[in-house]
Amino acid sequence: MTCDARPLVMHVIHHLVIGGMENGLVNLINRLPHESIRHAVVCIEDFTEFRQRIIRRDVEIVALHRSRVGAMRVRRQIYALCRRWRPDIVHARNLSGLDALLPSLLAGVPVRIQGEHGWDVDNLDGQRWKPAILRRLHSPLVTRYVTVSRDLAAFLTSRIGVNAERITTICNGVDANHFMPGAPRAALDLPPSHMPQPGRFVVGTVGRLRRIKDQGTLIDAVARLVERSPGARAAVRLLIVGDGPERADLARRADARAIADLVHFAGARHDVAEWLRAMQVFVLPSLNEGISNTLLEAMASGLPTLATAVGGNMELVVDGHGGGLFSPGDAEALARRLEAYLLDPALLARDARAARARALTHFDLDGMVLRYGDLYQQLLGRDPGAPSIEVAIASMRHKPAPAPEDASDRSFTIANGHFPRTPTG
Fold first, then answer.
1. Could you count the other beta carbons within 10 Å of the beta carbon of residue 228?
2. Using an 8 Å Cβ cutoff, are 83 and 107 in contact?
């Protein structure tokens, strides 16, 4: 037990790894006022060095390894953690987060939030019956749902039967002081053929190389562009940032389309802002999305954004104003969009300015953090919009973020019944 009066939020996620949802969690923890709220992170599976992005020293990070120990043991461990830490809020996310709802209720946690952040690769439209039944069965245990898009909120009401009054939509936000236009400010290990230079047209994407992200359609579109546009082979380059199980297949696809020399696979990168500055156009060819953080980061970086007309993408990209939308898998439509930018530098520059303006106006990171802070206070029966939250967030706008510290002394794997200390300042 701790005598710390600050409320404790216990966040439950699948993995703490490089990813859009995980990056949003890190931003939330780092930016909510430290003097007003505490945090702990419970990973249903595991964490990686990505946990070093959490700069606060009072955040415990625990891995439960469900695939190794089984769901029932994980639920018992969550119950034990809740009894030990006494969190005021359990904030679970996505399907695996459902494992935390019943144990936290039985442990006496007063507020249980279920966040929905996107779609699974094997359930792109949310129509599979088993996940839907699981969500329906757990619905009575949820105090409040949070979705990152109106599309996901509509899914909860229509498919899961959740009353709209129980749903709050909080769109992701982007740090426009970190993601901003300009040349790369650090040396990138790009091959000479892909280095930014006059006359080069670099098309890029950032994301896990998984089937749901469908980078293959982007490769096909670039191949079509090179085949039909005179001089395109000398100018066009494709930069794919990210790693994952589809990498080898994507490389073979580029080779089969005779553009292997134009494609560079950069692998997983922590300095995404620098890699975005090496691009002229950003493409998100996903088969479905919640609200894509990388899409927001590209917009803030002043890149025209081309995205599939699915999920939350349609809430971010306004067709013809800073970018455009195309149907999933439609390489021909994407190729035409890319060709328009290649042949019209004025259009490229105009949409670059419009994309950043939209990010600044509608998707400010501090606004997102403030809405989460208000929601936590509201659900705890405190005054929303308390000055302590607003003033602290405003003051943080002008402070450089501290360097991440070693998180190894506050990260734990529970495999032997020994539990970490209570999160405290």
1. 11
2. yes
List pLDDT tens digits, range 353-392: 999 999 999 999 999 999 999 999 999 997 544 545 555 5
φ/ψ of 87, rounded to 5, equals -65, 150
Contact predicate 96/66, CB 8 Å: yes
Question: What pTM value is reported for the model?
Answer: 0.79
- In a 10 Å sphere around its CB, with 0-12 CB exposed, 13-18 middle and 19+ buried, how is residue 48 labelled? middle
pLDDT confidence tier of residue 406, bands split at 50, 70 and 90: low
Report CA-CA distances (Å) from 56 to 74, 107, 179.
Answer: 26, 26, 22
Confidence of residue 416 (pLDDT cuts 50, 70, 90): very low
What pLDDT digit, counting tens, does each position of 44-73 carry? 999 998 899 999 989 999 999 999 999 999
Cβ within 8 Å of residue 13, ≥6 positions away: 21, 22, 25, 41, 42, 43, 44, 92, 93, 94, 96, 97
Q: Hey, what amino acid is at 30?
A: N
Largest Cα–Cα separation, the chain: 70
Instruction: List Cα–Cα distances, 246 to 50, 124, 213, 216, 409, in angstroms.
Output: 21, 17, 10, 9, 34
pLDDT tens, position by position, 105-127: 999 999 999 999 877 666 666 67
Which residue reads 């405003």 in tokens? 394
* Separation of alpha carbons 285 and 50, rounded Å: 25
Token pair for 373: 């802070």
